[in-house]
Amino acid sequence: MKFCPQCAEALIDALIEDKIRKACPDTACGFIHFNNPTPVVAMLVETDDGVIMAHNVSWPKRFYSIITGFLEENEDPKECAERETMEELGLTAIDTQFIGLYAFPQQNQIIMAYYIKAVGTVKLNHELDDYKFVARENLRGWNMGTGLAITDWLKSVGIESEPMHFG
Q: What pLDDT score was predicted for residue 16?
């Protein structure tokens, strides 16, 4: 954000509450951009065929991950997880369990991760262009974002797996 959404002045760096934040220089306006993290819901979706790892159309070709979606206004995170599973994969959630909460500072997001046992036939929406099933014992997390949720879920089902390290 470069301009104040209230008065259109160019934002400046200002020391507010011991942090540098973007703020409107017009003290009568008083706008402060706190740049709070965006809430994202992640779903580790499992069917009888395995855990679904999907490829988003905007990602590098080799990168697959669990399903994610943005939390809508006034939406319960669990309901968001079930909705996104239907929207992105065409699958119906039959069991939904909370895995954990994860900071993802690289994208300024906070991730609420869920395990979903699902049924149906996979039908990808426009955001995804490929998927694969991975057996629990072959699944590995990584050291950030949704990878942390995968590692924690694997531990919860009795599978010890060393996460991959990026960056």
A: 92
Centroid of chain to Cα 51: 17
Residue 49 phi, psi dihedral angles, 5° rounding? -85, -15
DSSP 93: E
CA 45 – CA 81 distance, rounded (Å): 10
Are 14 and 35 in contact, with CB atoms under 8 Å apart? no
Bridge partner list, 65: 54
Read off the pLDDT of residues 63-77 as tens digits, 9 standing for 90 and up: 999 999 999 999 999
Q: Which residues of 15-30 are buried (b: 16+ CB within 10 A; e: fewer)?
A: eeeeeeebbbeeeeee
Q: What is the C-alpha end-to-end distance of the chain, expressed in Å?
A: 27
DSSP 5-30: TTT-PBPEEEEETTEEEEE-S-TTT-
